[in-house]
Hints:
By secondary structure, chain A is mostly helical. Helix content of chain A is 62%, strand content 0%. The model of chain B has no long low-confidence stretch (mean pLDDT 96).
Amino acid sequence: MDTGEAHDYVRSALAIAGVALDETSLDRVVAEFERFAQIAAGLLASELPRDSEPAPVFRP
Amino acid sequence: MTDSALAIAAAVRGGSASAIDVLEATLERVARVDRALNCFTGVYVARARREARSIDEARAAGRTLPALAGVPYAVKNLFDVEGEVTLAGGAINRSNAPARRDATLIDRMRGAGAVLVGALNMDEHAYGFTTENSSFGATRNPHDPMRTAGGSSGGSGAAVAARMVPLSLGSDTNGSIRVPASLCGTFGLKPTYGRLPRSASFPFVHSLDHLGPFANSVADLGACYDALQGYDAGDPVCAERPAEPVSAQLDHRQPWRVGILDGYFADWAGPAARTAVQYVADALGARERVTWASAAEARAAAFVITGSEGGSLHLGRLTERYREFEPLSRDRLLAGAMLPARWYLAAQKWRAIARAELLALFERFDVLLAPATPVTAPLLGTEWLELNGQRVPARASLGLLTQPVSCVGLPVCCVPVWPHGDPVRALPIGVQIIAAPWREDHCLRVARVLEAGGIVTSRPPTGAADGD
């Protein structure tokens, strides 16, 4: 995800969430999002076992 | 006044000191020392006097006093205190209704006879490692007030290190007990995830939040931890396990199998951190270095889970009141709330993988050693650190070495190490003693071996931070 894509994604996601920001604040949020993306990349780089459990088991 | 919780309790039980006299001395010291450090956001004088007098009345009536009778302590201001507004470090929370009850851990401290003195400063909503709070001011390091106390439980670490109170409680989601313990030179315990109930405390990241104590000795830390243990249905994460007291076992010796975490932990440790781990390892006769292959992924998973859960928790108010949030963390919080679900789910999967890998190491070792922070306390306002050949943001990176471990929920005791040389200018740094789930006793017993050997110790501050 490059900066332009990150900017578009964050702008859209914030709009859906109902958050209105000025451009300066939006740029700061995008910068933080890009840092998340950089760190998350290592988690997404390889296919994980299909049966690995992503969340605690809910017991009704 | 002594800075030992157990010595205070013994004196109060034995009648050589009254709880009210101990409290008044504490209040005087807080008033004098905290001007320089800014640990406290609230001092509950009337309540504390009531609690202290009830201890003295119980003794006068001939009743047996509990383990922490008359011991003053304070709590990070995310713990609910009846009748007080729970700030969780946020000015935005000032208009919230006062808490209707005490947090469960405060109930338990009162049951153990401890006296609640006040509430302590923190990073807003626990999202930070430096306690640089734009609304309530920065908490300063008792060993050098120009430096950070660490965070997010910075007030809790600094208040104990500065001998204002002998015990405090904090929270640790990604390292928020261990980072201030490391930078302030105190002992801190992050118990196993689910060991201590979080009921009636302000959450940050439900699947990562832990609560735990700070103290200036292993014996005090163990006594406080024992007072806090036990199941509570009010926290769905709290394990239905009986209390497993550690205090009576601290000096039981056994040949410890100690490993040194290498790879990621050596890569991201600065020189002082590496030296501290080697010093502790040598004292324990530990030679074997082991690699936790997915430590980097565990840290990344913690980072993503924290952003996603923490951001989602606050998204409603961020939508309406963005500008009232802490400028140092509101953009990260908002970005976290926008993370794709796929990233969060991948992080949870990696969490399980990383946990299994680390648990396998405990078939060969009782405890593992790792540095607690990459560096000693940075100057307040530091924006960047040079680590592992990279320029990294200082505020987020102080937790690089604690995040992988809390991501998988293992118990850790952070112990303070001091460099050799000029003791006036020396700054402490912590070493993590990590054990298998539910083996807090292993962490604390190894910490006690090191303390008894003079390898780790909590030193009182000198100079301005001592109130001189």
